Amino acid sequence: MSVAGPLAPGRRASIEVRDLVVRYGAVTAVRGVSFHVAAGEHVTLLGPSGCGKTTTLRAIAGLEQPESGEIRIDGKPVFSSTPRVRVPPEQRGLSMVFQSYAIWPHMTVFDNVAYGLRVRRLPPAEVAERVGRALDLVQMSELSARSASKLSGGQQQRVALARAFVFGPAVLLFDEPLSNLDAKLRAEMRLEIKELQRALGITSVYVTHDLEEALAISDRIVVMRDGAIEQTGTPAEIYDLPRNPFVADFVGSANLIEGRPRPELAGPDLVALETAGGAIVHGTAYGRRMGARACFSVRTVHVRLSRERPAAGASSRATSPSTTSTGTAGRSWSAA
C-alpha cells in the first residue's frame, strides 16, 4: 500500500501528555497521566472499562476539559493549566474515529468522506481526487454512490476511516473503533488499520480493552488502571516483562506465584522462591531486588517442571520483583 499526492499528511506530529488530571465532580477519572507519542508512532491505551483511557483520548482531542496538566501536539501546547491554554478541537490538526462511527445516514459514501473537505472549501476537483484516493485505500470505491444507511457495519467502519484521514491530519485518534464488529471482521480490520497507519505515516493513539488487538497493531502500549498508568512499553515488553501483578494478569492471564525468597538456593542467573506449599520455583529477576516476599509471573507456554534444580545460566524468563507484590512474565521451573 502506498500513498502519494494530496492524501499524504503535511507533517508528522508528536504528542506529549504531562501530569494530566481530569475530574468529574468528586470523581477523578485521570490521575496524573504522562506519556509521549513519537511522530509517526502508533500507541495504544489499553485497560479495563473505567480505567480512564477514553477520557485521556478525548482530552487530547479537546472534547474533555482537564483540570490540570499539559498536552502538546507537535511541540505546541493545545492545553495547559499553567499558563492557561486551551486550543479548540478544530484547531488541533487531528481527526478522530469514534466507536459509533458517526456516519451521516442521509448522505452517500462519497459525500460522507467529502464533508470535511467541503467545509474547508477545497476546490471540487481536489475534493474528488482526495475522496477517490481515500476510498481506494479502504476498498470502498465501488460503493461511493451508495447511501450510508445501506452499508454493513464493516463498510461503515471503512467510511469512517476514510473520512478521518482524507484531509491529511497530523494526528489520528481511535476510540475503540472495532468494538461493534464481529470477531472475524475485527481481526481483518485491525490489520487494515495498521497497514493504513503505516502507509500514511500518521501519528495515532488507539483506545481498546482488547489485548489481542493491542498486541497486534501497536508500536507501544500504555496499560492503564483506575485513571493511572501501570506500564508503558512495546508489546513484547508488556507481555514478557510486566511490571506488576495487574499487568501480568491483564496482559495474557499469567499465573502468579507468591513466596518467600530462598537466596541459598539461588544462582548467578537465578532467584528462588518457596511457596506456602513448600515448592521451590526458580526464575530470573531481570535486575529487580526482592523484598521479604515476592511474586513470580509465569506464562504456561514457558513452564518446565523438574525435580532437579536448574543449572546456573539456564534460560528462564520468570522474575521476582523489586517489591513484595510485583513480578515479570516468562519461564519458570518448579522443583517438587
Condensed summary:
The chain has helices spanning 53-61, 109-119, 124-137, 153-165, 183-200, 211-217, 235-240, 245-250; strands at 15-24, 27-37, 42-46, 68-73, 76-81, 84-86, 94-97, 171-175, 203-208, 220-225, 228-233, 255-261, 271-274, 280-283, 294-298, 303-306, 332-335. The chain is of the alpha/beta class and 336 residues long.
Write the layout of secondary structure elements.
Layout: E1 15-24, E2 27-37, E3 42-46, H1 53-61, E4 68-73, E5 76-81, E6 84-86, E7 94-97, H2 109-119, H3 124-137, H4 153-165, E8 171-175, H5 183-200, E9 203-208, H6 211-217, E10 220-225, E11 228-233, H7 235-240, H8 245-250, E12 255-261, E13 271-274, E14 280-283, E15 294-298, E16 303-306, E17 332-335
Parallel strand pairs: 3-9, 3-10, 7-8, 8-9, 16-17
Antiparallel strand pairs: 1-2, 1-4, 4-5, 5-6, 10-11, 12-13, 12-15, 13-14, 14-17
Helix pairs in contact: 2-3, 2-4, 3-4
Task: Supply Rg.
Answer: 24 Å
Structural class, please?
alpha/beta
Kindly provide the name of the CATH class of the largest domain.
Alpha Beta
Largest sheet: 6 strands, mixed
Average pLDDT, rounded to a whole number, is 84
Q: In one word, what is the shape?
A: elongated
Tell me the CATH topology of the largest domain: Rossmann fold
Percentage of β-strand residues: 25-35%
**How are the strands of the largest sheet arranged?**
7-8-9-3-10-11
